[in-house]
Amino acid sequence: MRETELAPSHIVYPLFVQAGLSGRQPIDAMPGQDRLGLDALAAEAVSLESLGIPAVLLFGLPPAKDDRGSGAWARDGIVQQAVRRIKDARPDLLVIGDVCLCEYTSHGHCGVVRADGSVDNDATLPLLAETAVSLAGAGCDIIAPSDMMDGRVAAIRSALDASGFGETPILSYAAKFASAFYGPFREAAESAPAFGDRRTYQMDPANRRMALDEVVADISEGADMVMVKPALPYLDVLREVRNAVGVPVAAYNVSGEYAMLMAAAGNGWLDERRAIDEVLTSIRRAGADIIITYHAKQWAQAQG
Length: 304
Ligand SMILES: [Zn+2]
Known about the structure:
Blueprint: E1 11-18, E2 24-26, E3 34-36, H1 41-50, E4 55-61, H2 78-89, E5 94-99, E6 112-113, E7 119-120, H3 121-138, E8 142-145, H4 152-162, E9 171-176, H5 183-189, H6 209-221, E10 225-229, H7 235-244, E11 249-253, H8 255-266, H9 272-285, E12 290-293, H10 296-303
Parallel strand pairs: 1-3, 1-4, 1-12, 4-5, 5-8, 9-10, 10-11, 11-12
Antiparallel strand pairs: 2-3, 6-7
The structure holds zinc ion.
Residues 100, 102, 110, 146-147 line the site of zinc ion.
């Protein structure tokens, strides 16, 4: 009688890869999650595949940052090296490359910043396109732009097509809200903005109709899959998106959602295993075909 199925095949595990790190380093605000050095990736890929998790989403912590974020598209950039390591170890594990500049810019914004501190949307597009081509060239199976600049899906699609990656799909962070729940991620990825915030390019949490407009616009620009982020505070948006479009829909169960549950479980206030299962099932029930979650390994291990 169960209406909603949740299987490891629905799940994507995000990984933080840090340049210069050897082994693993725990992330304080995300108990149970680590940053990984390049040397830890092969074993991680083997372990994820043995749990049945089909895909990872990669975020990089580069050795240095600059005002344009050039580490994002460097040939030997941290994510580019990470993809090659994972593909050498486990060629069938799907690798999704996050495309944004905020992990690579010295100011922590997702795009090029003008002298007055505002983000220059149009000047950012070619850099995002170059990053996407670089990641596809390194072996990423799917390109996932998270920056929220206007027109970036079209810019990335045409750059991929022109570079021989016409078959590489785009998973667009289409409805990405300006959320308090990204806090722990910014510690994990060292990507907090040095000034201002991202509200000029991320969406107002109060706006549901605008989320649908963003999703439709991204699909018309060439997105093959769309994402709603965060997940739990936006399940209504997720359901509406699922009802409105034909393409696969992903939901990102973000760092703050993870930290909230794990903090309560760590204090004995929640049954961790049941809470994780309920959260992930509810995200599926709301319409997600793909769930990106830090709970991936815990949940998959509990199924065994
Ligand atoms: Zn960003």
